[in-house]
Fold:
Amino acid sequence: RRVHGTLSECLFFFAKHDPTMDSTTEPRAAAVAQAAEFAELMQKVVPLLEQYLSENAEPSAHKVVELASPATLRSVVNIPLDVDPKAPGASVETIVELIEATLKYSVRTSHPLFLDKLYAGTDPVGQVAELIIAVANTNVHTYAVAPCFAVMEREVIQAMGKVVGFPEAFDGVICPGGTYANMTALMIARHNAFPHVRMEGWKGGDRPVCFTGAQSHYSFRRAAMMSGMGMNQCRNVPCDRRGGMSSSALDELLTAAKATGENPFFVSSTAGSTVMGGFDNFVEIAEVCRKHAVWFHVDGAWGGSCLMSATHRSLMAGAELADSVVWNPHKGLGVPNTASVLMVHRHDGLLESANNSAAEYLFHRHAASDYDLGDKTLQCSRRADSFKIWLSWKRHGVSGFCQRVDTAFSNVTYLRDQV
Structure:
């Protein structure tokens, strides 16, 4: 058999097994015991989850949250952890009680009255997918350890890029949330404009600046901080009353920055601003970005899901002209948190050249090297989040996602009219 792993990883594996035990029976006994414990837990937990979900059908009888103070939660949920090395572990029955208490005092995001965030509940197929991801417990950095999930991630990105409508070649990577995805977009744009920074850092004459709408997500200021250019070099562009960024103001600000010797390299537009729900005019912004030769990014973390709707995808017109697009299926499509996709258009190989670190013990050239996805991202450990998106897509198809988006718009229109 082929053996995977470094020396340290092999030592960790062998440390889990008693060398005095028979090499064939001991692992088998452990696997059987693990499967039996899993079955026992599922037998007891699944009915709890079924009841928990069905209670959302009676919103008047069950609150969105049983709000309690941190001190109360520590007591009623038994949150403190015992650090005594001689303390025994809890029984399966106690674990089930802890799960039940956790559900009781957690926010019911599937409750009809949960209106607080840009997501709400999850779809059953996504919930099951999360369980499969945990059971498989692999790391999607190389094809060798995650062949199925790596192929799925590539397929998800290609399918989503086709829905966006990119006219030229595109690539992408799945990220742990929109903030991380937006940061990655800025980092690769930095590498495109200032390739020396990756190895040498910023130089005195670089003077980088980026621009984003005044109502854009705070992740871009954080990205500017993480890139080393500083938050003050992330400039706000005025927005209209609907939350859309002014393309004429953007043009003026880019012109003014260049006149003072600054080097604009990145512009982020927004598809669905956090507060107002505003959509920028991507066609106009794309033209301004072409004029000034700067990277054009679309943060469609929640607004990107409108692309699935024949009725509402016009809100995203022009997104296909972007250099990069972020889209979170966990906002709008019912996929469990987190499921965030960064797509890069027209810049073949830029994800790898910006992020790789030449970890020779992990990445090797082989027949399926195109599916070694770890060098496209700053992460090493990577969950198989593609599986949640892929399985949900298989279950519902574009038509099912379209219905979900259209229903959301219909509901918000009804709520607006009632107000």
Remarks:
- The longest helix spans residues 386-418.
- The mean pLDDT is 93.
- Residues 271 and 300 are 5 Å apart (CA to CA).
- The beta strands are 170-175, 208-213, 234-237, 263-270, 295-300, 324-327, 340-345.
